[in-house]
Amino acid sequence: MFKVKLRPVKARSVTDESGVSSLALAGNESEFNTDILKGDPIGRRDIGLNVPLPAQPEAFKKVVTEKVEQFKKNGVAMTIDVWKDQQSGLTYIMDGQHRFIAAAVLGMPVNLNWKKLGIRPSQVDWGGTKYIEGVPAKDKIKQKN
């Protein structure tokens, strides 16, 4: 059997395109408190790189609204899957981008489920994200059944 030696994860500084340096997520936090974002992160360039970054350049406003209402109804903290790119030091959302946005709208913490492997997305920050109209894939699947 192989023994895997885990190196301790240490936070490191990341620098955004404007040259502002901030402390990146270490890769072992159990939650992220979105209240520091002070609202919806979509399209904002003032957030920096020390937050879980989007994996997709767009989001559905309808889905975010559903997630906000879902949280208000049951009060259960949302969980997202994240992955830390060891080369860049950046953390990306692998699954749960709409839940993260909803939590930010509410100023609530999200639970972080760290994945060991991931793929670096083309999206680099929240400033390049936008809301789009259309039907989410999950709704298209429901319509076919």
Automatic annotation (TrEMBL):
Domain of life assignment: Bacteria
Protein name: Uncharacterized protein
